[in-house]
Amino acid sequence: MSGSSSFINARKYPRQARSAVMVETILEAAARVLETGGLEAFNTNAVAEKAGVSIGSLYQYFPAKEALLATLIRRKRMVLVEAISDVKAQAGALDLRSLIDGFIRAGLFQQLQRPRLARSLEYAEAMLPIDEETEALKRSITMAVADALRAHGVEEPEIAARDLAALTRGMADAGGLFGETDMPSLEHRVRRAAYGYLGLN
User: Fold this and answer.
1) Are 151 and 87 in contact (CB under 8 A)?
2) What CATH architecture is 69-198?
3) CB–CB of 8/66 below 8 Å?
4) 135 φ, ψ to 5°?
5) CA–centroid distance for 102 within its chain
6) What positions does the DNA-binding region cover (predicted)?
7) pLDDT grade, residue 174 (50/70/90)?
8) Which residue has the higher pLDDT, 127 or 30?
9) Domain range 17-65, its CATH number among 3.40.190.10, 1.10.10.60, 2.60.40.10, 3.10.450.50
C-alpha cells in the first residue's frame, strides 16, 4: 500500500504557538501510552486522556491512532537521518574507526534513548502502509553510509553499509528486549562486532 493514505497523515499543522504546544503534548502523551501499555493499550481515547485534552481537540490534528503512530515514526526517522548526515559530513576528518563509531552511536541512540517506545514503533511500522517511505529511508541511509565507507577504501561499500546497519539494529533490538540500559557497554560490543566485520581488529 502507498504511504499517502490519508488516515496516517495529520489533518493539519499548527500555526500558532498554543496549537503547537498542544500537538507536542499529544505526541508526547502518545509516546508515553506506547511505553507503558504498548500497541495493545494504544488508542486515541487513551492518548487524549494522558494528554489532558478532549478527544475533539486530538481529532483536529490526528484523524486516527495510525496518524499518531506515523507521526512518531517519521519524527524518529528524521532524527536518525540527521544524525547519520552529521557523521557523514565529518567523514573527511575522521579515520575509519571513528567514522564507524559515529554511525553506530547514531543508530544506538535511536534504539536505546526510549527502548520501549522504539520497539512499539518498530511493530507499528509493519502494520502501517508506509512501505514506500521505509524503503526510501533505507536507501537514503545506505547511500550516505556507503559514500563515507567508499571514501575510506572499504570494499563493496553498499553491502557493508547494509550489513553494518543490520548488525547495529539487531544488537540494539536484543539489548532493548532484555531491558539493557548500559549504552556504553552495548556500544562497545557493537563496535567490536563492526570492527571484526570490517577486519579492523
Assistant:
1) no
2) Orthogonal Bundle (1.10)
3) yes
4) -65, -40
5) 16
6) 43-62
7) confident
8) 30
9) 1.10.10.60
| Tens digits of residue pLDDT in 21-74 | 999 999 999 999 999 999 999 999 999 999 999 999 999 999 999 999 999 999
Owner of C-alpha cell 548488525: 167
d(Cα 153, Cα 7) in Å, to the nearest integer?
A: 45
Sequence letter at residue 49: E
Model confidence at 6: pLDDT above 70: no
Answer left, alpha or beta for residue 153, where phi above 0 means left and psi between -120 and 50 means alpha: left
153, three cell numbers: 577504501
Residues of the chain with CATH 1.10.10.60: 17-65
- Residue 130 is given by DSSP the state -
Q: What is the Cα gyration radius of the chain?
A: 19
- Classify residue 93 by its DSSP letter: G
